[in-house]
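Lab notebook: predicted structure, single chain.

Context: the supervisor wants predicted structures on file for every construct in the current expression panel, including those that have not yet been purified. This is the next one on the list. No modifications to the sequence; it matches the entry in the shared construct table.
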Amino acid sequence: MITSVIARQRVDDLDAAVPFYERLTGRTAERFAFAGVRLAAVGSFLLYSGPDEAVQRVAGVSATLTVGDLTAAVEAAVAAGATVVMPPQPTPNGHRAVVRHPEGGVYEYVGP
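Prediction complete. Output recorded below exactly as produced.
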């Protein structure tokens, strides 16, 4: 069900950080904004920056898990003991849900 894991990293200066990650991964950054936060997806990294109050929503999530079927993945996680923090909803780059795993880790699930 999980097709990839994306590491999240807060950076002070998104524009200064992106070139390093582009060289490291050999990928071009895909930049976007969400809820007052500037983000750049570069390979298996999601870089983000912004004011403290805005990034708190992003910083509380351990990693992003890409899934082939968002609804099925959330249902499977709940059946295994997870709780839904934020139900599936549309975003600028697909759909997402936020799920707390039984041990307490909070993960963003993204997919169609």
